[in-house]
Amino acid sequence: MTHQFSYKRIYHFIRRDLTIRHSTIRTALIVVSAIAFVFFLINLREDHRITVGEFVNIFGLFYIPLGVLFTFSICKESHDSKANHLYFVLPVSVYERIAAIWLTTTILYTIAFTILSFIVGQLAIITGGILFGTDFHVLPMLSGEFIGFAMFYCIVQPVFLVGALAFKVNRIGKTLLVFVSVFFGIIIYNMILFTMLNYRYDVHLGDAFASEAFGLAQSDFSILGILFFAAILGPVMLFVAYCKMLEKEV
Questions:
Q1: Which helix (H) or strand (E) holds 119?
Q2: Are the beta carbons of 245 and 165 closer than 8 angstroms?
C-alpha cells in the first residue's frame, strides 16, 4: 500500500505531527510573538516607521533558530525508544515521511511564520500609533532581503534535518559543529587549490594580485558556486536524511 507515492498519506502525516505538537508550537509562537512585538515597538520609537531592513532583522532573529528547533522537535519521536516502534509502523513510506517532515518544517513553517510576523508587526504599528503617534503604514516585508533569508533557510534546513535524525544526544550542538567544520574545510580547500593552481605566477594569499583574482573568480563563478552548494546542502542532504530514516525504520 505504501509503495506508491500518496499525497493523501503525506497530508495525514503532517496533520498528525502538528496535532501531537500543537501545544508546544502554540507556546513557542506566543513567546516569540511577544518578544518580536516589543522589538517592533522599539524600532517605531526612533523614526516612527518600520523599514524593510528593520523587519528583516527582527524576522531573521527568530525565523532560522525557531525553524531549527522545530525541525529537531519533529524528529525527536524517531529517537524515543519507548514510542518509535509505533512511529515507524505507521502506513507511510520513508520518502513520504521525509517529504512530510520537509514540507512541515520548511514550506508550511515559512508561510506560517511570515504571516505571523506580518500580523505582529502590523499590531505593533497600530499600538505605536496610540502610544507614540506613529503614522499608520503597511508593514513592508516582501523584498530581496526577505526572499534571500527564506531561500537560505530552505537550502540549509536539510542539513539540520540530517543532524536531527543522525544524532541521539546533543543533536543541535553536534550538527552545528559538523556544519561549521565542513564550511571552514571548504574555505581552506579553496585557498589551497587556488595557491596550487597559481604557484607559477608567484601568487600568495593576501597579495594584491591574489585579491584581484579572487574577485574576478567570484564574479565569474558566483552563480555556479551558489548552485553547487545549494545542490549539496539541499537535494543531497535530503537524500542523506532519507537514508538515515530508512536505516532507522529497518
A1: helix 109-131
A2: yes
The answer to whether 214 and 194 have CB atoms below 8 angstroms apart is yes
The mean pLDDT of 18-23, rounded to a whole number, is 90
CA distance 117 to 43: 15
CA distances from 60 to 9, 74, 79 (A): 32, 21, 29
Q: For residue 51, give the amino acid letter.
A: T
pLDDT digits (tens, 9 = 90+) for 30-45: 999 999 999 988 888 7
Q: Name the residue ranges covered by the structural domains of the chain.
A: 7-249
| Contact by Cβ (8 Å): 48, 132 | yes
User: What is the enclosing helix (H) or strand (E) of 248?
Assistant: helix 237-249
Q: Is 92 left (phi over 0), alpha (psi -120 to 50) or beta?
A: beta
> Nearest to residue 55, comparing CAs of 116, 154, 146?
146
pLDDT in tens, 52-94: 888 888 888 899 889 988 988 888 887 777 767 777 777 888 8
Residue owning grid cell 502554540 = 26
Task: State how far the alpha carbon of 161 is from the alpha carbons of 26, 100, 108, 233, in Å.
Answer: 22, 12, 15, 11
Please, what is the end-to-end C-alpha distance for the chain in angstroms? 17
Element (H, E) at 225: helix 208-231
